[in-house]
Amino acid sequence: MPGRLxxxxxxSMAAPDQxxxxxxWLADPPRRPRVLLLGFGDRGxxxxxxxxxxxxxENSAEIVGFDLEFSQDLSAINADIAVVLGGDGSxxxxxxxxxxxxIPVVGVNLGKLGFLADLMPSDFVSRFADICAGRCRVVEHLxxxxxxxxxxxxxxxxxxxxxxxxxxGPPFSMLNVDLYVDAELATTYSCDGLIxxxxxxxxxxxxxxxxxxxxxxxxxxxxxxxxxxxxxxxxVVDSAEHVYEAVVRQPxxxxxxxxxxxxxCNLTAKDRVRVTRAESTFQLVEVHGRNYYRTLRExxxxxxxxxxxxxxxxxxxxxxxxxxxxxx
Length: 328
Fold this sequence. Notes:
Number of domains: 2
Order of helices and strands: EEHEEHEHEEEEEEHEEEEEEHH
Radius of gyration: 22 Å
Number of helices: 6
Largest sheet: 7 strands, antiparallel
Structural class: alpha+beta
Oligomer: single chain
């Protein structure tokens, strides 16, 4: 049975005031912010866009790091902001690359969804000077620490922003996963896998598995089984101040632990996976005029207005009133 652990902080899901009132570069005396320019240059137009946006950045800030491979050690670079080009996957890579030394991130959306990478390139061009002048806010978000303990000894540790997932793997036999909360057995899931997600990650794998959306500022985890074999099993939201441990009694040959899409290791029956609140927090720069529910509505197509959807569908129909065929 997992050893008894105590939470480090008070038991609360309420979010503290997470908006930093003044960016570091505006402290006395104020200075131009130091910028890391990050992205995945092998994808799409990232390298081209980086060169196009470089003069925009240099008009208001100083570029002190440039990495389009997510391969550099950033620990020795003293920077104030990371401008990340790409989609949400690029932001996950950047958060992993920064490790325990997180700095505020400005996401420029060159991908498909852009839930975290909220600014389009045209928005970035018009807003970056405002960001450098402090007309923005920096919001801290919960990150998780995932530890794999093998026979009681730390085997692997990983920092995550979205989620930890235990995936069954071939031959895809159903798993029995024991979940412990603060060393007490909570339940046993018969399922294809288990997700423990942060609020930021609640709109990712967790949402696809039927889990709820959590406001990003909440201090909570959501535990979602993947394809549970019991109708009464539902996702659970609980405080991030607890210690969560999962034990797979008889893992498949390739049952694995995955953090933010990165496979960490394969599991054995002697392993337990521990998820806790990380000491580090992810810091996202938000510009004025952005709204959480607007983002849900526009990025995820979230909404229940049948009349509006019907009206929009009619507007998109051809003049003859016929619905377009699947080939159009």
